[in-house]
Amino acid sequence: MDGFGVHAALRFRARPDSVREARRAAVLFAREHDVPDEKLDLVALAVSEAATNVVLHAYRDRDEPGTFTLGLDIESGGLMIDVCDDGLGMAPRSDSPGLGLGLPIIAEVTDAHSFVPTSGNGSWLSMRFDLER
Fold this sequence. Notes:
By secondary structure, the chain is of the alpha+beta class. Helix content is 35%, strand content 29%.
C-alpha cells in the first residue's frame, strides 16, 4: 500500500435493506485491498451501526428516505470509512427506536473515529481501521 490511497464512494437510499448492502460493499472493498481478516468483522459491524443510525434517525422528518454516502479509502496504513448524510443531524431524541449503542459500538471496534455535523443539518461519521501489523 502506498500513501496516495485508493478511493470508492457509493450512494444508498436510507432504507433498512441498504444497511446490508453498505456492509457488504465495505467488506468487499476491504478484502480487495488486503485488509487483514481479523478486521473484516469489525468493519462489518461498524458500517452496520453507522448505516443503521442514518436509516433510523437522519430522515425521520421526511415521508421518503434520503440518501447516505459510503466513502471507502485505503491511505497511510489505514482503512478509512466515511458515512455521510444530509438529514437532521445529531440531536437527542426521546422517541428513539434504537438502544443508543451505535456510536459506543463504533468507538469500541474502530481504531479512531470522529463525528461532525456537515453544512446544513447532515452528519459525517469517519472511522479508521489501522492496517499496520
